[in-house]
């Protein structure tokens, strides 16, 4: 059972983005790319960005606002407050602002997609209510199939749920427009949801469980007994971002729904989803904290790896390193082949304190446009 709650509830929450059970990440801090130019200090945790012409929109979950980046680097609020804001996108005709919000600390009490249109119109697509009524992954089996008593006792003692099906949980995290519908990556429901302009919600795709066979090294790191070695554990696939490709397909990043650290390996994944029938195909894996993606001019896909402090690029199903960037949590394609990325403030009070930033990347170099030091 993942612990994905309202990220705006506190700084420490991001370290638990999808950790199950709660475990500290061994986040790496590679050397940054050369050539940063700091413009201002304004963001805390820019979970998602959207580039609309010359405008840069940001959903800052810890600040609880949705806004636009001004020329002087300040953030002009569009929605304030926007509790637990995480996703943001402007419609293709420029008339609707879509953003996701989530409320609640220990338990999510509200989550959904907000559609703010012309002349003050406001529509709310309630994904939590939809999850409570439908629970799209209720038939997906997680954990261990037919566990022995030793395995059950060991997993329970370690804080892992032994065997279960999809729980009632919604966290509307990212959003994109596909045709006349909005597609929501719901990190609680383990699904892609669709919402129309009236706020009606439906299921577009449900992600399958992600099995990992427990090795002796994994068992030792997690203090599990030998009876667990060789057992496949079916983790949840937790969608964090969705984008529309040039082929009309949807591309999605997922976290593995378990310990997000090198203990169990880099298990985040990139998927291609057919929006007409909901079929999902994994096209790349090996990401450590895949929180966001962007599609480049030539169809290449960039993936933000939060716990690796790096951006990877996937070409023809092959993953390679693109750029080191500490605490990178969001990435978006911009004008003229540029990329924009968001990074969070430092979450480790014992480590070096780094600012949250909005970053423009041109030809593999990054230039800070906005930052906030907590």
TrEMBL record:
It comes from the Bacteria. Gene3D superfamilies: YVTN repeat-like/Quinoprotein amine dehydrogenase. Keywords: Signal. SUPFAM superfamilies: Calcium-dependent phosphotriesterase. Residues 1-24 form the signal peptide. The keyword Signal applies. This is ScyD/ScyE family protein. It comes from Microbacterium saccharophilum.
């Amino acid at each position: 059972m993942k612990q994905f709650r309202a990220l705006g509830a506190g700084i420490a929450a991001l370290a638990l983005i999808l950790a199950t059970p709660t475990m500290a990440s061994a986040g790496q801090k590679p050397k940054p790319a050369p050539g940063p130019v700091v413009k201002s200090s304004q963001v805390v945790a820019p979970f998602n960005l959207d580039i609309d012409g010359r405008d840069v929109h940001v959903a800052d979950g810890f600040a609880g606002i949705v806004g636009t980046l001004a020329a002087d680097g300040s953030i002009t609020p569009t929605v304030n407050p926007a509790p637990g804001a995480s996703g943001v996108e402007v419609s293709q005709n420029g008339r609707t602002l879509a953003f996701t919000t989530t409320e609640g600390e220990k338990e999510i009490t509200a989550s959904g997609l907000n559609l703010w249109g012309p002349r003050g119109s406001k529509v709310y697509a309630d994904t939590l209510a939809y999850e409570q009524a439908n629970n799209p992954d209720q038939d997906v089996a997680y954990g261990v199939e037919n566990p022995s008593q030793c395995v059950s006792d060991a997993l329970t003692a370690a804080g892992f749920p032994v065997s279960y099906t999809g729980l009632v949980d919604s966290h509307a995290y990212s959003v994109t427009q596909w045709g006349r519908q909005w597609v929501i990556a719901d990190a609680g429901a383990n699904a892609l949801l669709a919402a129309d302009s009236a706020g009606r919600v439906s299921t577009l795709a449900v992600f399958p469980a992600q099995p990992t066979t427990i090795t002796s090294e994994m068992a030792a790191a997690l203090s599990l007994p030998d009876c667990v070695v060789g057992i496949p554990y079916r983790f949840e696939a937790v969608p964090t971002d969705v984008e529309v490709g040039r082929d009309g397909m949807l591309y999605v990043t997922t976290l593995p729904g378990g310990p997000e650290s090198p203990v169990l390996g880099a298990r985040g994944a990139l998927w291609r989803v057919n929006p007409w029938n909901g079929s999902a195909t994994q096209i790349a894996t090996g990401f450590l904290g895949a929180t966001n993606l962007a599609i480049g001019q030539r169809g290449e896909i960039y993936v933000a790896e939060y716990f690796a402090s790096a951006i990877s690029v996937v070409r023809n199903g092959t993953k390679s390193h693109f750029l080191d960037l500490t605490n990178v949590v969001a990435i978006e394609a911009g004008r003229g082949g540029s990329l924009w990325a968001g990074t969070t403030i430092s979450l480790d009070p014992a480590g070096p304190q780094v600012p949250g930033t909005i970053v423009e990347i041109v030809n593999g170099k990054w230039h800070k446009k906005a930052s906030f030091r907590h």
